[in-house]
């Protein structure tokens, strides 16, 4: 594993998925010097961390639905999928502010992403390089960056 991967990857995340994301960012922005490369790598890492928060949220809901199913037994199984998710949400909302913490972290990372991107764009404007296409201004979404255990 290279030094570029160590700060952002967790042990159960797929290094090759992160490398693919990182390479997409490098290809999209084509950094011309070490400063731009550093900014582009920070964009990729921030995008990765945003996706991680989304997978954590999904995991929390899955665990809460499992807990509700165990507690409510037959009543839970008879609920519609929407009602099952609502029960899980109610359960999560009543516990320790975990959802609020996730939202705060997501908001922080989205702001960080935008600041890094703005810095990169401003740096390029100083050199006369056109801004990236509009699609590059949004974080990439990566599907399944977590290694799943066989069932």
Question: What does the average pLDDT come to?
Answer: 84
The secondary-structure class comes to mainly alpha
Number of domains: 1
**Low-confidence regions:** 1-5, 141-151
Helix content: 55-70%
How many strands appear in the DSSP assignment? 0
Shape: elongated
Our measurement of the CA-to-CA distance between the termini, rounded to an integer number of angstroms, reads 28 Å
Please count the helical segments: 5
> What is the CA-atom radius of gyration, in angstroms?
19 Å
What is the H-and-E element order?
Answer: HHHHH
The fraction of residues assigned to DSSP E strands is under 5%
Q: Main β-sheet, in a few words? A: none
Oligomer: single chain
């Amino acid at each position: 594993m290279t030094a570029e991967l160590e700060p952002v990857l967790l042990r159960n995340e797929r290094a090759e998925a992160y490398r693919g994301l990182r390479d997409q960012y490098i290809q999209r922005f084509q950094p011309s010097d070490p400063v731009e490369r550093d900014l582009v790598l920070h964009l990729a890492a921030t995008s990765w961390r945003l996706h991680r928060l989304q997978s954590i949220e999904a995991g929390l809901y899955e665990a809460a639905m499992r807990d509700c199913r165990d507690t409510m037994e037959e009543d839970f199984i008879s609920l519609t999928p929407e009602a099952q998710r609502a029960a899980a949400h109610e359960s999560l909302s009543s516990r320790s502010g975990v959802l609020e913490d996730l939202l705060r972290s997501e908001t922080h990372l989205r702001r960080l992403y935008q600041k890094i991107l703005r810095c990169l764009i401003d740096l390029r404007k100083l050199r006369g390089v056109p801004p990236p296409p509009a699609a590059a201004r949004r974080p990439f979404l990566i599907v399944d960056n977590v290694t799943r255990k066989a069932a």
